[in-house]
Q: What sequence folds into this?
């Protein structure tokens, strides 16, 4: 039976770019169909009603028509635009990193309900706590999990012995933690502090909606960022564009706090 020419979907808008004189090319991650690239015809005209529903980081209910290369958006209704998140520059940049990574890890025409729900719960968590680093760290770790790439955090990847406190290292391309007696062939083996390992294990068993309240000092925060961003970037196989701007904002905030 051929697929229906028209269909409905609930989707997170990842990005939109101008197309032609008046159209928008919109990248969506939908609950029902995975990643979808679709055209909103005439959406950039002053009289258009669609454009407000197709801003990045908006959850929208859509009616679409299938096209040869790109689907066409016929109707859109906003379900959630994450207003609290969009009032803070750091928070909205973290939200855009969520969108960038969903775009990178999501597959076209391949539904991934856990990834969809993870993205939405993370955006809500960032909106609730715009100054907290944990929601994005949690998202990066669970992004790997729902993509089948979760690093090993309990036992040595090579010998499978339980990791002893303060006797562990980490490798993104090796697949997780290693004991001191094992040296993987892969490059990128790096130290992993006991504090960082404990936080990673805590995040692994936590949900975005009820993240623990943790005060991370700058050294621990930077270690966790290096591990998780490095691992995500390894599997993504390209630079995370939003990360450089997040680092710039972090440096600016630290300089302001120190009076410099």
A:
């Amino acid at each position: 039976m051929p697929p229906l020419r028209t269909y409905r979907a609930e989707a997170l808008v990842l990005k939109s770019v101008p197309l032609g004189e008046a159209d928008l090319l919109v990248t969506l991650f939908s609950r029902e169909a995975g990643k979808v690239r679709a055209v909103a015809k005439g959406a950039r005209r002053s009289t258009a009603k669609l454009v407000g529903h197709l801003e990045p980081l908006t959850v929208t209910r859509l009616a679409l028509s299938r096209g040869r290369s790109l689907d066409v958006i016929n109707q859109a209704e906003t379900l959630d635009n994450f207003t609290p998140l969009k009032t803070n520059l750091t928070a909205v940049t973290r939200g855009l990193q969520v969108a960038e990574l969903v775009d990178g890890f999501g597959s076209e025409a391949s539904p991934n309900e856990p990834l969809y729900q993870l993205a939405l719960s993370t955006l809500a968590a960032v909106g609730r706590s715009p100054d907290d680093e944990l929601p994005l760290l949690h998202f990066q770790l669970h992004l790997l999990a729902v993509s089948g790439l979760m690093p090993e955090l309990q036992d040595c990847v090579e010998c499978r012995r339980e990791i002893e406190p303060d006797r562990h290292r980490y490798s993104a391309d090796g697949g997780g933690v290693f004991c001191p007696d094992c040296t993987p062939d892969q490059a990128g083996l790096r130290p992993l502090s006991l504090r960082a390992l404990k936080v990673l294990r805590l995040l692994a068993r936590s949900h975005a909606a009820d993240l623990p309240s943790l005060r991370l000092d700058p050294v621990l925060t930077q270690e966790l960022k290096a591990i998780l961003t490095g691992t995500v970037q390894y599997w993504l196989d390209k630079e995370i564009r939003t990360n450089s701007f997040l680092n710039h904002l972090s440096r600016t905030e630290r300089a302001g706090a120190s009076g410099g």
In short: Helices lie at 89-105, 113-128, 134-146, 194-204, 218-236, 241-257.
